[in-house]
Model the fold of this input.
Amino acid sequence: MLLTVPRPPLPRRVCCRLQGQGFRPIGAAPCRSDALSIGVDELEAIRLADVEGLYQDAAAERMGISRQTYARVLSRGRRAVAECLMQRRMLLVRPGPVIQERAVPSDCPVHGGPRRVGRECRCPVRHTGRCGKECRQAGHAPATGGPAVTHK
Done:
């Protein structure tokens, strides 16, 4: 009989450093019997997608894995976090095959600047005003269809 042995997981690059071992609901007794656990790589996938707002391709590249693998890791992590929140269960973060790296600030994929926060881009609006000068002030409308931008 031929036995198939799964390939061992490759180490993933992570930047998140957790100060504790996990999270528990406020007021809940610390009972590990009904706790769920996620790997450090799943926590990193959630951080890259939901905190830094990276697309799956960019996040997978930062972790050193394929986009399909990243999608599976992210789905597993989000499911565990959602179950813990909805069922008031403790969430433990287990170590795994990871390579710790220093956090690198990500550039905004739209404007290319390091001003991205979460999924929303907080970059100042860049456009050419009716006067022909480039305007980088937030809140000014572009020359087409919006109010005039005044420059002094």
